[in-house]
Amino acid sequence: MLRKFLAGSMSLMLVVSLLAGCGQGGSSASSAASSAPASSAAPASSAAASSEAPVDENAPLFAETFEFSIMCPIYEPHSKATEKMEIFNEMAARTNTKIDYQWFPTDGYKDRVTTTLASGNIPEVIESRDSLEMLIEQGAAIPLDDLLEKHGPNILAAIDGVDSMLRNPSDGALYGLPFVLDYPPAYSMLVRKDWLDAVGIEKIPETWDEWVAAWTAFKEGDPNGDGDPTNDIPYGGDIYGLMPAFGLMTNTGKQGFVINADGEYTLAYEMPEYREYLEAMRDLYAKGLLDQEFTTRGTYVDQLKLQDAMFAGIVGSTMTWAEIAKRTTEAVREVKEDALMVGTLPIVGPNGKSGVPARSKASNQAVLTITAEQNGKAEGIIQYYNWVFSEEGTILSSFGIEGVHYTLVDGKPVINAPYNESFVNAREAGLNFTPLPHIFDSAAYEQILLSGMDYDSCPDTTKIFYDALHSVDGHTYNAPIVLTTTAYQENQATIMPKIETLVSECVAGKTTIDQFYEEYEKLKPIGLQAILDEGKEAWAKMN
C-alpha cells in the first residue's frame, strides 16, 4: 500500500533526493529564478529570517532566496505562458523565490500523481484537483489550518464564508490552497437561434414541452441546411445539465449529489423526482432528440468533444459554459454567416422546477506535501501563497505586469490589448493561470470578457457571451460539493462508475427503469450506503 510505503521509506529517500529543492521527474521543467526585487514588493518575511529583524518595506518577501517545487498539469492555452515565464519570473523577483515547476500533461495526470507518490520523489506542492482525496488518504497532503492561521491571513480572507465547503469531511481540516473567482454566472442553456428561425419557431423555448417541440423540429427539419437531417443533434452533450429541470439541483459533475427537501445531503437517485427524469431522458434518446453519444460527449464528461460537435455546426442546444455561445457562433459563421448561438433562461421542467448551478467561489487547487513539512518549508510556502493572495499578488495574477500587460487608468489597472481580447490571449500570457492557486479578480474577468470595452462598444459575439452569462441571473443555485468522506474515498472508484453505467444503459433503453433501481440497490451493501450515511452526517455537521 502507498500509505505503508510513504510511512516506511519516505524519510530516507527525501533526505537524499529532495533537500536541494526536490527532484526531477517532470516531462519538462522551468524555474523562476530570483532577481532584483520590484519597488512594490511586500514586506520582508521568512521562515529563516529572524523575527527581530527590522522590516524594510522595499525588501522582497524572503530575505534569503526561498526554494521549493511544484508538480502541476499543463494544458492549452496556459502552456504558452510557461515559454516566456514573464509573470512567474516577476513573482520570483518580488518574493525572492526560486520555484522548480514540474509540468505534466493533463492526460494521465492523476496517474502521474500516483506514480510520483510511489517513487518517493515528491514535490513540496502538488496541484490536486483530481487527486485531493487520494493525497489525503495516502498521508501525502498535510493539513493547513494552523499554518494558515499563523501565516495565511490573505488566503483565509479570500475563502471567508465558503471555507466549510473546502474542508475535508473526514477530519474537518483544510488541505487545499484555493483558486478563487467571485463571479457566480458561468453556465447557461444555449440554443442555435438560426436553427429556431429555420424551423419556424419565433419564441425561444422556456418550458419542457416547448423545448421538446423545438428539439423535434430540429430532428425533422434539417435546420443546419446541409441536406442531411440525420446528422443534426437537437440536444448535445451529457444528460446531467438537464437534471435541474426536474428539481435535481446537482453539483457540476457526474456524481449527482443533491440536498433533499429535508435539507439532507444525498444522491439524486434517492430522490422521487429521479424516476420522472429517467423516463424523460429515455424518451428523448429513443426519439433521437438526445445526443446519441451522451455517454462520451458532454458538458462534464469530455468538454472538447462537445465543443468539436458544436463548432462543426451539428448541435442545436446544450447546457454548458456560457463562453461556448460566442465561440460556437464564431466557428460556425466561417461557413454559415447567419449562425447564432444564444444563452437562454434555464428550462422550466414539467413540475415548474428550473435552475443552473452557480460557479463555485473557491475550489481546492493544490496541497502541501509531507515533503514540504519534512524539509521545513511548509511555513515559507504558505507565506509565499499568502503574498500571491495579497492585493499586489492578485494584481499580478489577474492583470499582469504594469506597462506590459496593463496600464493604470484613474488608479485602477486596465488590461492592455491583446491580452484583454480573449481569455485565450490572457492565459497564454500567464494571466489567470488556473493550474495554480490564486485569486482571479472579478474586474479583470469582466475586462477580458468584454475585450477591454464597454458593453455597447463590444462586437456582437462578445455581447453574445456576456448575455449568455447573465441570461441566468436570478436563476442560479449553489450546488453541494462532493464530500470526500472516508466512505467516499474508499468506495467511489468502484461505486460511482457502476452508477454511471446503470444510468447510461437505462437511458439508452438497454435496461428498464425498474432494473436500474434493482441494480442500484445492490450497490448499497458494498459501499454505496456508507457513502450516503457518512455524507449525510458530514453535511449535518458542516451546516
Describe the structure in your own words.
The chain has about 550 residues and is α/β, with parallel strands linked by helices. About 40% of the residues lie in helices and about 15% in strands. It contains 22 helices and 16 strands. The chain has a 7-stranded mixed β-sheet. Strands 9-6-10 form a 3-stranded antiparallel β-sheet. A hairpin with a 5-residue loop joins strand 7 and strand 8. The radius of gyration is 25 Å and the shape is globular. The two termini are about 35 Å apart. Residues about 1-55 have low confidence and may be disordered.
Describe the protein's topology.
Elements: H1 2-17, E1 28-32, E2 66-74, H2 81-84, H3 86-95, E3 97-105, H4 109-119, E4 125-127, H5 132-137, H6 145-151, H7 153-158, H8 163-166, E5 176-180, E6 187-192, H9 193-198, H10 208-221, E7 257-259, E8 265-267, H11 273-286, H12 303-311, E9 317-321, H13 323-332, E10 341-344, E11 356-357, E12 362-368, H14 370-374, H15 378-388, H16 391-398, E13 406-409, E14 412-415, H17 423-429, E15 438-439, H18 442-449, H19 460-470, E16 476-477, H20 486-507, H21 513-522, H22 528-542
Parallel strand pairs: 2-3, 2-4, 5-15, 11-16
Antiparallel strand pairs: 1-3, 4-12, 5-12, 6-9, 6-10, 7-8, 13-14
Helix pairs in contact: 13-19, 20-21, 20-22
The number of helices is 22
Radius of gyration: 25 Å
First and last CA, distance: 35 Å
Instruction: Report the structural category.
Output: alpha/beta
What is the mean predicted local confidence, pLDDT?
89
- Number of beta strands: 16
What's the quaternary structure here?
A: single chain
Strand content: 5-15%
What does the largest sheet look like?
7 strands, mixed
**Which percent range fits the helix content?**
25-40%
| Order of strands across the main sheet | 1-3-2-4-12-5-15
Give the uncertain stretches in residue-range form. 1-53
**Which geometry do the CA atoms define?**
globular
